[in-house]
Design goal:
It is built from 12 helices and 32 strands. By secondary structure, the chain is an alpha+beta fold. The chain folds into 3 domains: about 30-210 and about 410-450, Bira Bifunctional Protein, Domain 2 (BirA Bifunctional Protein, domain 2, 2-Layer Sandwich), CATH 3.30.930.10; about 260-375, YbaK/aminoacyl-tRNA synthetase-associated domain (YbaK protein); about 465-550, Rossmann fold (3-Layer(aba) Sandwich). Strands 4, 8, 9, 10, 11, 12, 13, 22 and 25 form a 9-stranded mixed sheet that branches. Strands 1-29-28-30-31-32 form a 6-stranded mixed sheet, sandwiched between helices. A hairpin with a 2-residue loop joins strand 26 and strand 27 (about 455). Helix 1 (about 25-30) crosses helix 9, helix 2 (about 45-65) packs antiparallel against helix 5 and helix 2 (about 45-65) crosses helix 9. The longest helix has 21 residues, at about 165-185. The radius of gyration is 29 Å and the shape is globular. The two termini are about 15 Å apart. Bound molecules: adenosine-5'-diphosphate, magnesium ion and zinc ion.
Length: about 550
């Protein structure tokens, strides 16, 4: 097919949108791929929609390849389904009513809907099933950002697997995982598969696909030797060993007037900050105060604390602290505290300085297990200077975008929604589910983040809106038309810039901005030699090719 720029809606802009920070936001708007309707709500223009559909097609092909079946389930969803699984109260949920007062939600994702349909699976003979659809999701995101990166309405490809047992679920999970690897590869995206937090989804484990990009919201930790990749929220990496002072047989009180920070303390006592400990008193949702204990030079990773507590939490207030410890913040420690102490794994070995629960005093030589009985957990945030837990190698920290997320849901949804089947042994069992999501719009933005230069986008050929951009310069319309026809006959999708009112410079600037992989320039010289300039958008390489050779 040949699309003519003179007829298309191609609203390119020379200036970045004022509010844009992410490169993909700037370039997708300037290239005329998307337009904002309201905060977090974006329309895809014809050009942007072509890219979205190519990404969708890649996803579709890779899922169909292993036997997944495409559905379409409604957006409007009876709230009862979400009440059954306990998700009706999620703050991101849009709620609405019909004229008779029946209540609905706009789904964040479709687990409930597909678990509902999963009730029709009656026998083990029908399992496994792999179902997916491309459907709109609405999320009342508190902070939409970055153009297509975090929006309030988007199409997701969400897939659901149904299995009879754990081995089946594992197999279904692997099939989707392998398909995801191929999908991102075909989209030209560099991604890493990492252990992830399951958040509001529940289940027994999940993996994220992270695409490194300066505009991401995740931090990806990888080993220089390629044997470790994790999201910082769950990364368990190895901190540098502390320089411990001489060992003590029992904790020893030391006066530390005015030393309320680790920095003050380590200077005053002349000890390595890594040989001190830091108290983080927190209050769980049920009101219990728990003492979190970290190495002095570490920071708390909130997601890990959340997992360790199994509950939401907040920092304790000064009043709560004085009531529980009898001392001011800055002098708190585990000895003498009668609530639960959760200590980071880095405190397992060695003696640390700890608060004495007496304002202005600390204890030297405090040893876990000998002097207090903590529950150990991984609480610390992984950071620069840590080493790889697999090989000891150096770690790299990169900002990244989550482009895909796959979950082992187990019976989190099929349980409450009662999706059961009759197994071979004649007993009734609950179906085990998995769910698998990709946002093609976010993938599009991530591709732009990874493939651009100062002039514009450089689409990988697999997802480009057109295959070839034919630029007709003044006086060469006819031969340009011929070149376009030849390319069309060869099966290429052609964008022909036949605008009579645009100068050569404008046409080249638009071609660089829009980023179609191959540009064919037809000018007056072509009339003489019957040849055109074929330019690769990514490498900048240019060749003179006979029109008949296109
Ligand atoms: N607000 C959003 N805007 C654009 N795409 C999104 C958004 N939220 C999720 N996605 C896409 O859907 C996929 C699956 O989402 P999910 O893991 O349920 O989201 P989250 O981790 O944000 O809760 C994500 O990996 C991403 O590709
Ligand atoms: Mg996610
Ligand atoms: Zn390693």
């Amino acid at each position: 097919m040949i699309a003519r720029a003179s007829k298309l809606f191609l609203p390119t802009l020379r200036e970045d949108p004022a509010d844009a920070e992410a490169v993909s936001h700037k370039l997708l708007v300037r290239g005329g791929f998307v337009r904002q309707l309201a905060t977090g709500l974006w329309s895809f223009t014809p050009l942007g929609w072509r890219v979205q559909r190519r990404i969708e097609q890649i996803i579709r092909e890779e899922l169909d390849a292993f036997g997944a079946q495409e559905w379409l389930a409604p957006v409007l969803t009876p709230i009862e389904l979400w009440e059954t699984t306990g998700r009706a109260g999620i703050p991101e949920l849009f709620r609405l009513q019909d004229r008779t007062g029946r209540r609905y939600i706009l789904p964040l994702t479709h687990e409930e809907t597909f678990a509902f349909h999963g009730r029709e699976l009656r026998s083990y003979r029908e399992l496994p099933q792999w179902w997916y659809h491309f459907q709109t999701k609405d999320r009342d995101e508190p902070r939409p950002r970055g153009g297509l990166l975090r929006v309030r309405e988007f199409i997701m490809k969400d897939a659901y697997s149904f299995d009879r047992d754990a081995a089946g679920l594992e197999h279904s999970f692997r099939l989707h995982e392998q398909a995801y690897v191929r999908i991102f590869e075909r989209c030209g995206l560099e991604t890493y598969e990492v252990q992830a937090e399951s958040g509001i989804m529940g289940g027994s484990g999940s993996m994220d696909f992270l695409a490194p990009s300066a505009s991401g919201e995740n931090t990806l930790v990888t080993c220089e030797n390629g044997d470790f990749a994790a999201d910082i929220e769950v990364a368990s990496t190895v901190p540098r060993p502390p320089a411990f002072p001489e060992r003590l047989d029992a904790p020893q009180e030391v006066e530390t007037p005015g030393a309320t920070t680790i920095d003050d303390l380590s200077k005053l006592l002349d000890v390595d900050p890594a040989a001190t400990s830091k108290a983080m008193p927190v209050v769980k949702a049920d009101g219990t105060l728990v003492l979190g204990l970290l190495r002095g030079d570490d920071r708390l990773e909130e997601m890990k604390m959340l997992a360790a507590l199994g509950s939401d939490f907040r920092p304790a207030t000064e009043d709560e602290i004085r009531a529980a410890f009898g001392a001011d913040p800055g002098s708190l420690g585990p000895i003498g505290f009668d609530g639960e102490v959760i200590a980071d794994n880095a405190l397992r070995e060695g003696q640390f300085v700890a608060g004495a629960n007496r304002t202005g005093w600390h204890l030297l030589g405090v040893e876990a297990a000998r002097d207090f009985e903590p529950r150990f957990a991984d609480l610390r945030q992984s950071r620069e200077g840590d080493s790889c837990p697999t090989c000891g190698g150096r770690l790299r920290f990169q900002v990244a975008i989550e482009v895909g997320h796959i979950f082992k849901l187990e019976t989190t949804y099929s349980g409450p929604l009662e999706a059961r089947f009759l197994d071979e042994d004649g007993t009734e069992k609950t179906v085990l589910m998995g769910s698998y999501g990709i946002g093609p719009g976010r993938v599009m933005a991530a591709i732009v983040e990874q493939h651009h230069d100062e002039l514009g986008i450089r689409w990988p050929a697999s997802v480009a809106p057109y295959d070839v951009h034919v630029v007709a310069l003044a006086g060469a319309d006819e031969i340009a038309e011929r070149a376009a026809e030849r390319l069309d006959a060869a099966g290429k999708a052609v964008l022909l810039d036949d605008r009579a009112d645009a100068r050569a410079g404008e046409k080249f600037a638009d071609a660089d901005l829009i980023g179609i992989p191959v540009r064919v320039t037809v000018g007056r010289k072509s009339l003489e030699d019957g040849a055109v300039d074929v330019r690769d958008r990514t490498t900048g390489e240019e060749r003179r090719v006979a029109v008949e050779g296109l």
